[in-house]
Fold this protein.
Amino acid sequence: MSSAYGRDMKRVTSTALLVLAMLAGAPAFAGGGRPVVVELYTSQGCDACPQADALQSHLIKRKGLIAMTLPVTYWDMLGWKDTLASEANTRRQKAYAAAMGRGGVYTPQTIVDGAKDVVGSREEDVEAAIDTEARDAAAVEVGFTPLPQRLHIAVAALPDAAAKRNLDATIWMFRLRSAVPVHIGAGENGGRNWTYRNVVSDIKDLGRWNGRAVAIDVPPADAKTPAHDSLVVVLQQGGYGRVLGAAYLTHAERYAQQ
């Protein structure tokens, strides 16, 4: 990221929409910075994953982070079908591998702010990646705006000079389950009981962002929508590049559209 681009990003104007998002349950962060997004790709069938799962459970409690758990499907053939895994999570991890020029995917893998990937069970490496990304103060303000019978996602505008750079970013929305207890019946972790935290149950591509302010209605939940109690929105360069902004909304069921 160029220094000029970084300066433009830092001049993003605060909006009332962000304040509303904070009141709705999205955490506030000191100094006007944005949360760092930590994605853990894991599997119930992976004997190297429990340590990473435990670390992620601690990170979820930390201010200044949005930590999400994304169970993947490719371990299912080895004796135990992950009860929380989804093909959407697997596709997202594979898309990261392609974007980062990696030869393949693995578990446990932690991806920090879409920019750094490390083995998810190596606590020192995970912490170092988080510290590095936290020092990048550039941020686009993103928030949830609760309205009667509906919920908006708002992304603030960049200054005109930055907007003219023809930025290309994706607005992602994740539905999460904050705590899911699981008994693993077979495979490498057979017999283990564990509660997975901030489990991604649904991923939506809400469209592109080019530096101008946008407000998007949250897609309504219906009978086919996976169970969830929280929402996360992530603004990300390209589709799977550096995170530019993010917000977290707890008790999302209060704002579910009927």
In short: Confidence is low (pLDDT under 50) at residues 1-32. The domain at 3-252 is CATH 3.40.30.10 (Glutaredoxin). The chain has one domain: 3-252. The two ends are 42 Å apart (CA to CA).
